[in-house]
Amino acid sequence: NKTLRPKIETFAECFPRRIGMSDVDAIVEVNNKFLMIEWKARGGSVTRGQEIMFERLTKDNDKFVVYVVDGNPQTMEVTQFSRYHNNMVQRFPCPKEDGLGTLKAHIKRWVKFTAGEA
Q: From CA 41, how far away is CA 39, in angstroms rounded?
């Protein structure tokens, strides 16, 4: 990723106050609704700019949900995650033995909801 990742900071000069662009770790569209995942490795955190973007993207908008996942992206261990949706940020600690399963269960519920099954 370090060698192939575009150097998006190059575009900062294009924006007011040299606002930095955010990369997207994962995004999916289901029935005209969008789920985005931002993964933060242990010790990493969401910047205030990202937090503002997630809040604004999901404010009064049922088309977007953003999950910020804390864990190890190589092993897919999930220690906790936060969900930004409709003016709310909810934090979910995960059981040590199956954090990934907990996150997947949330995503599956979102899919059912977007399909009108929930």
A: 7
- Element at 67 (helix H, strand E): strand 64-72
Q: How many Å apart are CA 25 and CA 35, to the nearest integer?
A: 11
Dihedral sign (CA 45, 84, 33, 30):
positive
Instruction: Choose among 87, 91, 88, 89: nearest CA to 78.
Output: 91
pLDDT tens digits along 53-80: 999 999 988 899 999 999 998 999 999 9
pTM higher than 0.85, yes or no? Answer: yes
Radius of gyration for the alpha carbons in the chain, expressed in angstroms and rounded: 15
| Number of Cβ within a 10 Å radius of residue 99 | 22
CB of 108 closer than 8 Å to CB of 27:
no
Q: Is 56 helix (H, G, I), strand (E, B) or coil?
A: helix
